[in-house]
Design goal:
globular, 6-stranded mixed sheet, alpha+beta, 5-stranded antiparallel sheet, 8 helices
Amino acid sequence: MNEHGIVAVLGAGMAGAAAARRLAEAGFRVRVFDKGRGVGGRMATRRVGEMQFDHGAQFMRARGPAFAAELGRWTRLGIVAPWAGSDRHVGVPGMTEPVRALLSDLPVSSATTVVRLRRQGARWHLEDAAGTVHGPFDAVAITFPAPQVTTLLEASGVALPGVRRATYAPCWSLMVATETRPRDVLVQPRTDPIGLIAHDSAKPGRPAGSRLTVHATPAWSRGHLEAPREAVIAALLGAAEDVLGATLRPSHAEAHRWRYAQVETALEQPCLYDPDLRLGAGGDWCLGARIEAAYDSGQALARCLLADLGRPA
């Protein structure tokens, strides 16, 4: 493949960002697509006026040297800082910042839902939900949650064996602005319905005020997946008050439903790749329910592409 090779990366979360950056550094042109309005995936930051909430992943840790080195680099850049213990790190000013850094200067098509892949000869075209066709691309890397990867592959008439083995738990996330300040910055009772309560505004680099993010347990979220948001807010508010032993009296409360929040069953392999199709997939569902796992999987997927397409890995 020559210097003009171009790769489509589907998904602008940590896995997609890690893959895209590695490919770009190796000399490939990369174009990233994501259905969301912005980048970050489940490393999400919701802004409401002057308030903000990390309503997805709350922090990240490093177990291996590659992600530890990346955390160190981000810390030196001032976009990551320790929180609630030296082994927990958060993005600054929001959890999205490390993904933004990886994708800086790369073309990202946001609010673009890719619904079908079309292979013409040795190259790929992508069709989005609006009927627009993008391409051609020499290879495609998909970093959606595994069920969404399966849906896209089935609609495209292609397969990557193994994707179906990965499973996710859902999560209802409650964002609360309140004058009440919890004693602890992080509480993880993991007893229905509350899995976690994070004092969001206690994280470094956050706006003033008192804001909480409450994550429901997987079991409770699954049982209330289609419940009205108002009912979810009321139930989680009451339960959070019981856990904290305090009345919250929120000035703002909203709920977000994550259908694919946390990996329950991982493939225990870095990524999936078909060299004949030049098509691969990766994400935390390959290695485990951690931001580091998404990063490592994205890096592994990029290495497969680089080796196959004739670049040094």
